[in-house]
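User: I'm curious whether this sequence folds into something compact or stays loose and floppy. Could you predict its structure so I can see for myself?
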Amino acid sequence: MKIIGINGSPRANGNTKAALDVMGEVFAQEGIDFDVLHIGHQLSPCTGCFRCAKTHTCTLPDDSLNGLYQKLIQADGVVFGSPVYFASITSVMRCFMDRIGCIDMNNGRQFRFKVGAPLVVARRAGAVSAIDELVHYINYAQMIIPGSLYWPLVYGNRPGEVAQDPEGIQTAQVLAQSMAYVMKAMAVGRDQVSLPELPKKTYTNFVR
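Assistant: Here's the prediction. I'll summarize afterward.
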Protein backbone atom coordinates (compact mmCIF):
# COMPACT_ATOMS: atom_id res chain seq x y z
CA MET A 1 0.00 0.00 0.00
CA LYS A 2 1.11 3.54 -0.72
CA ILE A 3 0.20 6.93 0.73
CA ILE A 4 1.46 10.25 -0.58
CA GLY A 5 1.67 13.37 1.54
CA ILE A 6 1.38 16.71 -0.25
CA ASN A 7 3.47 19.42 1.38
CA GLY A 8 1.76 22.66 0.36
CA SER A 9 4.20 24.87 2.26
CA PRO A 10 6.72 27.09 0.49
CA ARG A 11 9.25 25.58 2.91
CA ALA A 12 10.32 22.05 2.06
CA ASN A 13 11.38 21.24 5.62
CA GLY A 14 9.17 23.40 7.80
CA ASN A 15 6.44 22.53 10.27
CA THR A 16 4.08 21.12 7.64
CA LYS A 17 6.72 18.57 6.62
CA ALA A 18 7.35 17.78 10.29
CA ALA A 19 3.62 17.14 10.86
CA LEU A 20 3.46 14.91 7.79
CA ASP A 21 6.49 13.01 9.06
CA VAL A 22 4.63 12.29 12.31
CA MET A 23 1.98 10.53 10.24
CA GLY A 24 4.71 8.85 8.21
CA GLU A 25 6.11 7.18 11.33
CA VAL A 26 2.71 5.58 11.97
CA PHE A 27 2.36 4.49 8.35
CA ALA A 28 5.77 2.80 8.57
CA GLN A 29 4.62 0.89 11.66
CA GLU A 30 1.54 -0.20 9.70
CA GLY A 31 3.70 -1.45 6.81
CA ILE A 32 2.52 1.29 4.43
CA ASP A 33 4.90 3.17 2.15
CA PHE A 34 4.78 6.95 2.52
CA ASP A 35 6.36 9.64 0.38
CA VAL A 36 6.08 13.41 0.81
CA LEU A 37 5.90 15.51 -2.36
CA HIS A 38 6.81 19.18 -1.92
CA ILE A 39 4.83 21.50 -4.19
CA GLY A 40 6.17 24.76 -2.80
CA HIS A 41 7.45 25.86 -6.19
CA GLN A 42 5.45 28.16 -8.42
CA LEU A 43 2.29 26.68 -9.91
CA SER A 44 0.15 28.69 -12.30
CA PRO A 45 -3.53 29.04 -11.35
CA CYS A 46 -6.23 27.09 -13.18
CA THR A 47 -7.63 29.15 -16.06
CA GLY A 48 -10.91 27.23 -16.35
CA CYS A 49 -10.22 26.40 -20.00
CA PHE A 50 -11.44 22.79 -19.50
CA ARG A 51 -9.15 21.49 -22.23
CA CYS A 52 -8.33 18.74 -19.73
CA ALA A 53 -11.80 17.33 -20.46
CA LYS A 54 -10.38 16.14 -23.80
CA THR A 55 -6.67 15.65 -23.01
CA HIS A 56 -7.03 14.29 -19.42
CA THR A 57 -3.94 16.34 -18.63
CA CYS A 58 -3.44 20.00 -17.82
CA THR A 59 -2.46 21.87 -20.99
CA LEU A 60 -0.84 24.82 -19.23
CA PRO A 61 2.94 25.08 -19.67
CA ASP A 62 4.55 22.11 -17.94
CA ASP A 63 5.35 22.86 -14.29
CA SER A 64 5.32 19.22 -13.08
CA LEU A 65 1.60 19.26 -12.23
CA ASN A 66 0.78 16.39 -14.58
CA GLY A 67 3.58 14.28 -13.16
CA LEU A 68 2.31 14.89 -9.64
CA TYR A 69 -1.18 13.85 -10.70
CA GLN A 70 0.11 10.54 -12.08
CA LYS A 71 1.84 9.81 -8.78
CA LEU A 72 -1.38 10.44 -6.89
CA ILE A 73 -3.28 8.09 -9.18
CA GLN A 74 -0.90 5.28 -8.23
CA ALA A 75 -1.37 5.88 -4.48
CA ASP A 76 -3.99 4.27 -2.25
CA GLY A 77 -4.27 7.34 -0.02
CA VAL A 78 -3.32 11.00 0.08
CA VAL A 79 -2.69 13.46 2.92
CA PHE A 80 -3.13 17.06 1.83
CA GLY A 81 -0.95 19.19 4.10
CA SER A 82 -0.82 22.98 4.21
CA PRO A 83 0.21 25.73 6.60
CA VAL A 84 -2.39 28.40 7.30
CA TYR A 85 -1.93 31.77 5.58
CA PHE A 86 -4.60 34.40 6.32
CA ALA A 87 -7.12 31.79 7.55
CA SER A 88 -6.63 29.83 4.34
CA ILE A 89 -4.50 27.22 2.65
CA THR A 90 -1.48 28.55 0.77
CA SER A 91 -1.85 29.97 -2.73
CA VAL A 92 0.27 27.17 -4.22
CA MET A 93 -1.93 24.57 -2.49
CA ARG A 94 -5.01 26.22 -3.93
CA CYS A 95 -3.51 26.18 -7.43
CA PHE A 96 -2.60 22.54 -6.95
CA MET A 97 -6.05 21.50 -5.73
CA ASP A 98 -7.89 23.53 -8.39
CA ARG A 99 -5.91 22.04 -11.25
CA ILE A 100 -5.71 18.49 -9.90
CA GLY A 101 -9.43 18.57 -9.17
CA CYS A 102 -10.30 19.84 -12.63
CA ILE A 103 -8.21 17.17 -14.34
CA ASP A 104 -9.59 14.39 -12.17
CA MET A 105 -13.26 15.17 -12.61
CA ASN A 106 -12.66 15.04 -16.37
CA ASN A 107 -10.60 11.85 -16.20
CA GLY A 108 -13.00 9.32 -14.76
CA ARG A 109 -12.47 10.42 -11.16
CA GLN A 110 -9.28 8.48 -10.44
CA PHE A 111 -9.31 9.63 -6.79
CA ARG A 112 -12.73 8.06 -6.25
CA PHE A 113 -12.74 5.86 -3.13
CA LYS A 114 -9.11 6.46 -2.32
CA VAL A 115 -8.55 7.49 1.30
CA GLY A 116 -7.85 11.20 1.71
CA ALA A 117 -7.22 13.42 4.71
CA PRO A 118 -6.46 17.09 5.37
CA LEU A 119 -3.68 18.22 7.71
CA VAL A 120 -2.97 21.86 8.50
CA VAL A 121 -0.38 23.67 10.59
CA ALA A 122 -1.20 27.04 12.14
CA ARG A 123 0.53 29.66 14.24
CA ARG A 124 -2.68 30.64 16.00
CA ALA A 125 -6.06 30.96 14.25
CA GLY A 126 -7.58 30.11 10.88
CA ALA A 127 -6.90 26.38 10.98
CA VAL A 128 -10.52 25.21 10.86
CA SER A 129 -11.36 27.31 7.81
CA ALA A 130 -8.26 25.95 6.04
CA ILE A 131 -9.34 22.40 6.91
CA ASP A 132 -12.78 23.16 5.47
CA GLU A 133 -11.20 24.25 2.19
CA LEU A 134 -9.27 21.01 1.86
CA VAL A 135 -12.30 18.90 2.84
CA HIS A 136 -14.35 20.52 0.07
CA TYR A 137 -11.83 19.33 -2.52
CA ILE A 138 -11.40 15.87 -0.97
CA ASN A 139 -15.14 15.32 -0.63
CA TYR A 140 -15.85 16.44 -4.20
CA ALA A 141 -13.30 13.88 -5.42
CA GLN A 142 -15.39 11.17 -3.65
CA MET A 143 -12.49 10.21 -1.42
CA ILE A 144 -13.03 8.49 1.93
CA ILE A 145 -12.18 10.86 4.80
CA PRO A 146 -11.27 9.22 8.14
CA GLY A 147 -11.39 11.08 11.43
CA SER A 148 -9.20 11.57 14.49
CA LEU A 149 -9.56 12.69 18.10
CA TYR A 150 -9.73 16.35 17.04
CA TRP A 151 -9.70 18.42 13.89
CA PRO A 152 -6.57 17.56 11.87
CA LEU A 153 -4.38 20.48 12.90
CA VAL A 154 -1.06 20.98 14.61
CA TYR A 155 0.15 24.26 16.10
CA GLY A 156 3.58 25.71 15.46
CA ASN A 157 5.25 28.83 14.09
CA ARG A 158 9.04 28.61 14.16
CA PRO A 159 10.65 25.54 12.59
CA GLY A 160 10.21 22.51 14.83
CA GLU A 161 7.59 24.03 17.11
CA VAL A 162 4.96 21.44 16.11
CA ALA A 163 6.86 19.01 18.35
CA GLN A 164 5.75 21.17 21.31
CA ASP A 165 2.04 20.54 20.58
CA PRO A 166 1.37 17.10 22.12
CA GLU A 167 -2.35 17.16 21.34
CA GLY A 168 -1.67 18.06 17.74
CA ILE A 169 0.93 15.30 17.43
CA GLN A 170 -1.49 12.77 18.90
CA THR A 171 -4.21 13.97 16.52
CA ALA A 172 -1.91 13.42 13.53
CA GLN A 173 -0.92 9.98 14.81
CA VAL A 174 -4.51 8.84 15.30
CA LEU A 175 -5.43 10.25 11.90
CA ALA A 176 -2.69 8.11 10.37
CA GLN A 177 -3.94 5.05 12.24
CA SER A 178 -7.46 5.73 10.97
CA MET A 179 -6.22 6.04 7.39
CA ALA A 180 -4.29 2.78 7.67
CA TYR A 181 -7.29 0.95 9.13
CA VAL A 182 -9.70 2.18 6.45
CA MET A 183 -7.28 1.32 3.65
CA LYS A 184 -6.70 -2.19 4.99
CA ALA A 185 -10.41 -2.79 5.57
CA MET A 186 -11.20 -1.62 2.05
CA ALA A 187 -8.51 -3.94 0.65
CA VAL A 188 -10.14 -6.90 2.40
CA GLY A 189 -13.58 -6.06 1.04
CA ARG A 190 -12.51 -5.05 -2.47
CA ASP A 191 -12.89 -8.57 -3.86
CA GLN A 192 -16.26 -9.03 -2.17
CA VAL A 193 -17.99 -5.71 -2.80
CA SER A 194 -17.93 -4.05 -6.21
CA LEU A 195 -17.55 -0.29 -6.53
CA PRO A 196 -20.77 1.46 -7.52
CA GLU A 197 -20.97 2.49 -11.14
CA LEU A 198 -19.84 6.02 -11.85
CA PRO A 199 -22.85 7.84 -13.34
CA LYS A 200 -22.63 10.61 -15.88
CA LYS A 201 -22.76 13.82 -13.89
CA THR A 202 -25.79 16.07 -14.27
CA TYR A 203 -24.76 19.73 -14.60
CA THR A 204 -27.08 22.64 -13.84
CA ASN A 205 -26.68 26.29 -12.94
CA PHE A 206 -28.93 28.83 -11.26
CA VAL A 207 -30.15 30.62 -14.38
CA ARG A 208 -31.75 27.68 -16.16
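Summary: The chain has a mean pLDDT of 94. The CA atoms of residues 131 and 155 lie 13 Å apart.
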